[in-house]
Structures are given as structure tokens and as C-alpha cells.
Design a protein that fits this description.
It is built from ten helices and 14 strands. It has helices at residues 3-27, 38-44, 46-62, 69-75, 125-139, 154-164, 233-242, 245-274, 293-299, 305-309, and strands at residues 86-87, 105-112, 143-151, 169-177, 180-188, 192-199, 206-214, 217-225, 279-285, 302-304, 312-313, 327-332, 336-342, 353-358.
Length: 359
């Protein structure tokens, strides 16, 4: 067999494999990962696999190879998904004249603050919490959904919220332990008409919901923190160097557990939404990317503020940026997002997302 023919056969096999993986990434949004956990992995691979297929397409076209149609066909459906990761300037709606002064526009924000312990520059929790408060007040949001808020005890939490967020009404649900308390906090300038929590089995995560009277009527805001992988990238790198097999077995167990729990948590939230008498915003840290069963289910019947009004990369997790977008603001389709921002501040391993919405 000639070297040229061998290279041609090898390249076609590689194209077929890459195309097969690409197609599987599309299926990851439809298959419940609690039944087939590996589908979540394929969803996470959407961006790198897409880049590989783009490279193979360009390489095949430069060589004028007929096999270039393989990555081309595999990439065609991706046009419906790339916009959930990156938006180009001008792709969103035009900002209505004078909209920033309208009474029926609200600013909604979601931010996983990482227990005030993830800052690269600030090591003290109290100092980080103070810096986060200053930042949040500067954003001038009407509704702020916070996840992984930490405090030494409930009295300290109440003091922090009352002194740092004057003018906001705080609703919260905290897990109390021997080392302090942590949970979700929703701050709002609107009057609270109802509240509650969707708790999850065998998990400290939850979805805190609050009903608010706004210019667009009463709406329910779900402040969600879904099951995380509970993985540490530095520990993974260190353990890989030490060849720590026990660590990787434990990591695999955590990974599969989080994958199996999130669909159950999504179903609990959707069941609560179905029984709600008012329309729902779904905000927070989903711990899943847009190519996931989690996002697909929660976004049905709702608009995504980044997709509708964002620009640039939508990634919200600082590690492996711009690969991971896991924080969202989803809102009823009859409303209009006119502006979306992902703010790259370093107080947490997450970046906050913020959107202006016309009701």
C-alpha cells in the first residue's frame, strides 16, 4: 500500500470518528444522563470536537478531498448550538430608545459567589464578602440571585444582608453546619408576595423561589444551584502527577453521582413550575453547559438572556475559559432581553451574569 493511499484511508477514518462524536454531542441534550451518564461527557466535548471537525473540514478542502463532506455534514447542525456559546455584536435585538428609563424594565443578576473563598486576590472571607457587596450595589440590579453564600452563623448573615444591601429585601435558605452556614440568597427591590424552596434528595443544593409584584405583573424567580461535580482542578493535576488511583476512583464516583442527580433536580423544579400560578424566571448555577439535558429541559418555553441579547463569549466559569457556560438567566418568552453582560470579576470562580429585561 502506498504512503499516499494509507494517509487517505487514515484521514477518512479520523473524519468518520470525529463526525460520529460530533453527532453524539447533539444527542446529549435529549438523552437523560441519569440513564446514560456518558452523554454528559459528550455534551462537554461539544466545543473541542467542533473545532476538530472544523480543522478537518479546512484540511480536506485544502487537499480538495471528497472526504471533506464528512466533517461538513457533521457540522451543519452545530449552527443551531454555537450561538449558545458565542454571540457576535449586532446579533441581539436593537436597544429601544429610552428603554433604560422605562418603568417596565428590570435588571436581573445571578452570581455564584463561591462561599467568598474562591477569589484569586482576596484570601479573607469577610474581605471578599465586603468586596462582593460593593460590586453588587454598583450593578444596580433589581433582582439578585446569589448561590453559595457563606456566613459564620445566621446572625452574621442577617447583619451582612441588612447592612450591605440597604433597600433590598432578602430571602434565603441556608444549610447550617458546624463550620458555618451556606446556601442561596435572593435580593430584590420588589415586594415579596410568596416564597418557598424546592429541596433535593440527598443534596445540600436547592432552588429558592420568590414571587414578586413587578410592572409586568407577578412573576416567580427561581434561584437555582444544581448538583456540582465537587471537583478541584488543582487536586486533579496534583493527583495525576502522583498517580493517586484512589483519588481518581473517588473523582469518578463524584462525577457519576452529580450527573445522575441533576436530572432529578431538574424534574423537581419543572414540577414546581408547572404548579405555579405565575410565570417563572429560572436563574442560577446549573453546573451544566448548553449542550446538556439540564439546559434543554429548563430552557423549554423560556428565552435565554445571553442568546437573545449577549455578545462575545458566554462562558461563566473562570477555569477552562471560554469553554464552560454554566450560569444562566432564563425568562418567559413574552418578555424581551435588551442587554446581557457576563462580568469578569475575580471574587469567585464563577462570573456573574446580568440582563436588562422589558416586561
Amino acid at each position: 500500500m502506498s504512503r499516499t493511499r494509507f494517509a487517505g484511508i487514515t484521514s477518512r477514518i479520523l473524519m468518520l470518528i470525529a463526525a460520529g462524536v460530533q453527532v453524539t454531542t447533539y444527542l446529549s441534550v435529549l438523552v437523560n444522563p441519569s440513564k446514560v451518564w456518558i452523554m454528559t461527557v459528550f455534551g462537554l466535548l461539544f466545543i473541542p470536537v467542533s473545532l476538530l471537525n472544523i480543522f478537518l473540514l479546512v484540511w480536506g478542502m485544502k487537499r480538495m478531498s471528497k472526504a471533506a463532506f464528512i466533517p461538513l455534514l457533521a457540522l451543519l447542525p452545530s449552527v443551531f448550538f454555537f450561538g449558545k456559546y458565542i454571540r457576535f455584536a449586532g446579533s441581539g435585538p436593537d436597544f429601544p430608545d429610552g428603554a433604560e428609563n422605562r418603568d417596565d424594565m428590570i435588571r436581573v443578576m445571578s452570581y455564584n459567589v463561591g462561599r467568598f473563598a474562591s477569589s484569586a486576590d482576596i484570601r479573607d472571607r469577610d474581605e471578599c464578602a465586603d468586596s462582593v457587596a460593593v460590586f453588587l450595589r454598583s450593578c444596580d440590579a433589581d433582582i439578585i440571585c446569589l448561590q453559595e453564600v457563606y456566613s459564620r452563623n445566621m446572625e452574621a448573615l442577617k447583619s451582612y444582608l441588612s447592612h450591605k444591601f440597604n433597600g433590598y429585601k432578602a430571602e434565603y435558605y441556608m444549610n447550617i453546619g458546624s463550620r458555618g452556614c451556606f446556601g442561596n440568597v435572593t435580593l430584590s427591590r420588589f415586594r415579596t408576595e410568596g416564597k418557598g424552596v424546592v429541596s433535593f434528595d440527598r443534596s445540600a443544593n436547592m432552588a429558592l423561589y420568590t414571587d414578586y409584584r413587578t410592572a409586568g405583573g407577578t412573576v416567580r424567580v427561581y434561584n437555582c444551584h444544581l448538583e456540582s461535580y465537587a471537583l478541584s482542578l488543582p487536586k486533579i493535576i496534583k493527583s495525576a502527577g502522583n498517580r493517586d488511583r484512589n483519588f481518581f476512583k473517588d473523582t469518578e464516583k463524584k462525577f457519576k453521582m452529580s450527573i445522575s442527580r441533576r436530572p432529578q433536580q431538574v424534574d423537581r423544579i419543572l414540577k414546581d413550575i408547572a404548579s405555579s400560578p405565575v410565570e417563572a424566571f429560572v436563574c442560577g448555577d446549573f453546573n451544566d453547559n448548553p449542550m446538556s439535558y439540564t439546559y434543554f429541559k429548563l430552557s423549554r418555553g423560556r428565552s435565554d438572556s445571553f442568546v437573545e441579547a449577549g455578545s462575545g463569549f458566554g462562558a461563566t466559569y473562570s477555569f477552562l475559559w471560554p469553554m464552560l457556560r454554566i450560569d444562566y438567566i432564563l425568562y418567559p418568552e413574552r418578555f424581551t432581553a435588551v442587554k446581557h453582560r457576563t462580568v469578569k470579576v475575580g471574587y469567585s470562580d464563577h462570573y456573574p451574569v446580568m440582563t436588562d429585561i422589558l416586561l
